[in-house]
Amino acid sequence: MKALDRLGITDCFEQIICFETMNFNLSKATRPEEIPVILKPSMEAMNIAIEAAQVDPYRTLFLDDNVKNIAAGKAVGLQTVLVSSYLYICVFTICF
User: Which Gene3D superfamilies does the annotation name (predicted)?
Assistant: First the structure.
């Protein structure tokens, strides 16, 4: 979310699924082990995100800067793009 905010493109998305949206119950936990944390690149995280977005994974583009996350996205059928910090710098420079 912070990266999208810095780039000024948060409003370009209908929905953003991130750590906070996937782990919204963590603030209710009284002990760290009480509620399991859902993280990429787990298949569970990918499937929860797909369900939350109510999208067809085969028609959905998943962008990430981590090869393991990209592999997990591909494994659940997402179209994927590996982005790098170089791309972020170029996009920021061109757009602003």
Answer: HAD superfamily/HAD-like
DSSP per-residue codes, 41-72: T-HHHHHHHHHHHT--GGG-EEEES-HHHHHH
Question: What is the rounded distance in angstroms from the CA atom of residue 9 to the CA atom of residue 22?
Answer: 21
Contact predicate 40/57, CB 8 Å: no
Q: In terms of pTM, does the model score above 0.70?
A: no
State the Cα–Cα distance between residues 52 and 30, nearest whole angstrom. 25
CA nearest to 82, candidates 70, 74, 92: 70
Q: Contact at 8 Å (CB) between 41 and 21?
A: no
Phi-psi region of 5 (alpha: psi -120 to 50; beta: other; left: phi over 0): alpha
Give the SS3 label for residue 18.
coil
